[in-house]
Structure formats: C-alpha cells, structure tokens
Amino acid sequence: MLSYQHIYHAGNLADVHKHGLLAWMLNYLTAKDKPLTYIETHAGRALYDLQDAAALKTGEAAAGIGRVASWFDDAHPLTGALNAVRATHGSDSYAGSPLIAAHVLRPDDQMHLAELHPGEHAALDFALSSFPAKCYRQDGFELAHSLTPPTPRRGLMLIDPSYEIKTDYADIPRHIASVTRAWNVGIICLWYPMLTAKSHLPMLTALHKAHPSALRHEVRFPPARKGHGMIGSGMFVINPPYGLEGEAARLSDRFATLTAE
To answer: Does 73 qualify as catalytic in the annotation?
Structure first.
C-alpha cells in the first residue's frame, strides 16, 4: 500500500499529459476574480530530481518531458510553473502536480493535499512550505469525503492514485459518486493508466454510465520499456471547463507524432 515511489516515473509521458491539462484548467479557473479550492488525493512528494538514480534507472523522464517540453510554449501555464521550479530548485528539478498547482493558484485560493506515505508526506510538506497549502498525512479518499463540499465551492479535485491497490479500479466510481453528490459544481479529474491488461475499462464503463457528460481524454504512446504494461494515459473530467476539449485535442495531435514514428 505504501510502496509506490513516483520518482521512478516523474516527468514521464503520462505526467506530461496529466500536468498539461491540469495546468490549463487551473489557469482557466484563476482568470476569474473569485477564489477557488484545489484538492489532491494522492499528492506524492511534489518535487523531483530528474538526475536521481531512480529517475535515471527507468529513463522515463528523458523520454517524457525531456523530449517533448517544446509542446508547451512560453504562454502555457505548465511552462511557467516548470520554469519557476527550475529557477528555485535547479535545472534538473521537476514539479509534481502539487507544485504546478501552487505556482498557478493565487494566495487566496485554498490548497488541500493528501499523501499517506510518511516519507513522501514529509517531502511534500517541505516542498510546499512557502505556499499556503495544507498537507495531510491521510488517505486521499477519506480527505476528499471530509472536505466536500469545500469552501470556496469553486474549484477542482485531482484524483491520481498509483493503482497499486487493485481494488482502486472498483472503488473509484463509488468514491466519485459520493464526492459529486456533495460537490456538484466541482471539477473532478481522475487520471488513469491505459493498460495492455485493460484493467481500467470496467471502471470507465461505470464512470461513463454515472457521468455521461464528462470529458474522457486518452493519449497513447510507446511503452517505456519492453514488456511495460502502460501504453497510454487517460483523464476523466467531470464538469470540464469551457475550452478544455480544444487543449485536449491539441495534445492528442502532439502525442500522435510519437506513435507515428
């Protein structure tokens, strides 16, 4: 349950997909002069060293953000967040979703971040120490249920589990159903891996049935290494903000260049 370490995968193509859409959505929300709430259920450590032995071992960052950073121009909020983190922590640093959110959000916005792993939580708390974020060493789904509906009610929740707990696939639709009942105006974003084993498909069937107007966006890419079971990345977004489909389509075009090679 507490064995997952994202450092092996930080900055990979799935992160590029997830973080590109997340930064765009948060930037869209902050364009309106009203405060918002950001909740993340599986935050990780937030700050990663891409020269760490674990990151170099898999090579996923080199094949990910190291290869496709040019997909995001200087005006894109992801570029701004990543550049700010590199300026503070060095050129080999990479921002996880909590730090990306912290650099897009404003001082009056609320941030609630859950991370159950003790070491990852300590690192998260340190990485966010200069931002007005609340970091909880708590199960992310428990936190989600306890906080919704949040104050302010405008906002976004990112659900991004490791899926190492195999029951997540069966449990997530139930958790999301409860959250959306309590927080019907919230933008609820679920990241999921696209797997050769197709473990994600029953979960998506249940989610589509319950939330037919949600945006489902998937991109495919070559496996990180021979025999690797993840062949793509998905985002399921309930109450998607206006214009998100256009940004998703732009990313689809970019990812298509990888599978065409």
So the answer is: no
